Amino acid sequence: xxxxxxxxxxxxxxxxxxxxxxxxxxxxxxxxxxxxxxxxxxxxxxxxxxxxxxxxxxxxxxxxxxxxxxxxxxxxxxxxxxxxxxxxxxxxxxxxxxxxxxxxxxxxxxxxxxxxxxxxxxxxxxxxxxxxxxxxxxxxxxxxxxxxxxxxxxxxxxxxxxxxxxxxxxxxxxxxxxxxxxxxxxxxxxxxxxxxxxxxxxxxxxxxxxxxxxxxxxxxxxxxxxxxxxxxxxxxxxxxxxxxxxxxxxxxxxxxxxxxxxxxxxxxxxxxxxxxxxxxxxxxxxxxxxxxxxxxxxxxxxxxxxxxxxxxxxxxxxxxxxxxxxxxxxxxxxxxxxxxxxxxxxxxxxxxxxxxxxxxxxxxxxxxxxxxxxxx
Length: 376
Ligand code: BGC
Prior knowledge:
Distance between the termini: 17 Å
Order of helices and strands: HEHHHEHHHHEEHEEEHHEHH
Low-confidence stretches: none
Oligomer: single chain
Strand order of the largest sheet: 1-2
Shape: globular
Bound molecules: beta-D-glucopyranose
CATH topology of the domain at 48-226: Glycosyltransferase
Number of helices: 13
Largest sheet: 2 strands, antiparallel
């Protein structure tokens, strides 16, 4: 508790509820008939479906009762992965034989809505979305009581698990699509969340399930050994920088419990520079000047709930809602407090205005709203 006034009067609640409804509409509108969610409709480079963004969006839609939307995305992912099991087999064989793999050969992080790769140059080699997919899939099936559907997903779950078991400690781009030469702690958290799910999936061979379970333990040991400095988590193994994506280690991926002293120390280390209502990604962020990210501000609110600071969570919700535009669209980031203002124009010239509406922002608002609303 921090002595701030609670933001729960009827007018504020109505406003939050309307934005939640609008968020559902925005997400539905930008879901393709294939089930894929666009990251954002207004930038050509965002008119793709990312496994990472989409998994968070599907999870939020599932929680909000939009089960058909969530199921359609999760099934779209199944198809994307099933069509690439031979690629996974070949990559895994070469990894086991100790052969080097070219970054261009990895599964991509984003796909066109028809499930095809884009040939546009991109930091495609990212692993966290594959863990995120397993995490969202399992949570959705459990939530809607559709465990009997598990068998339909078994071969895609198995391929994903074999891929993650083989490559979890291989460097890849982080969830911000940067620093491809590092092994990132938030990425490891997503992989562990996914492998935990795979380790119990009916229809997945026992050897793969066991490998998934022991990789989860290896990830935890490795993060505790190489992903901690000065008592808090760091952005990549062996590094010293902070990154707000470390919040994902607790919420939603539960690599560590939210009240684990390591998580508490991480969030308090993030707070002075990066988290003050709005949440920056990391100190050196120059992308669109290094603004405050809506989705991170909402995740911080969900973290607050997880540690019992409900007032702080309401304030995060208020901060997020205050940044919806006249169409009730939430952007990717806002520029009221930039870390590197000189870099804003360069990105605006390159890509146009920052992504808006960003479906991932709407999803994280929906999650936070849903959690707080349930506590009223
Ligand atoms: C972000 C990624 C995100 C992608 C699509 C990038 O700018 O760094 O985290 O997946 O946009 O939203």
